[in-house]
Amino acid sequence: MIQSHKFILASNSPRRKYLLNQIGLKFKIHPSKISENVLKNETPKENVLRLSLQKAIDVSKSYKDEIVIGADTIVVLNDKILGKPKSKNDAVKMLNRLSNNSHFVYTGFAFVDSKTKKSFTGFEKTKVTFRKLTTDEIKLYVSSGSPMDKAGAYGIQDDFGAVFIKKINGCYYNVVGLPLQNFFISLNKFINENGK
Question: What are phi and psi of 5, to 5 degrees?
């Protein structure tokens, strides 16, 4: 059973913590120290798969017999990756670009067995469409500080950012930070194939 294993989440994200609790996973938090950089000529899919695996590998070095979970979420608008805003001004610019537009959210996830060193990576892509935002709405949201730790400068859950979204096409939880269905099925398969 998936619930009987020891898991380490290589992330400090309160959203991922909430989602793992939602599916009954028992885990410890040990954030990765790797830098979340974008490599030249790397596709969004390649970016999230690489970073999620690097995070899991980095943290797995500190453990002997646990499954380490790494994840990375990015927002992609017109083939350009939008990470977390570097400043409030940067957050305003991002939200202005997302306004009245559709973008894609990619989340990569990875598992690393710290004992056998075996690994798995997967990802999900969701299309998100924003309504037209007013300047006041953007300023109010950015002044709250909420967008500063989020890819694309917004959150879809527990957050005022939810009212910006007109529609989504794909997995809602992927936009939150972890595509739960894909993640859960993949994790069960990883455990079964590794004889855990």
Answer: -95, 160
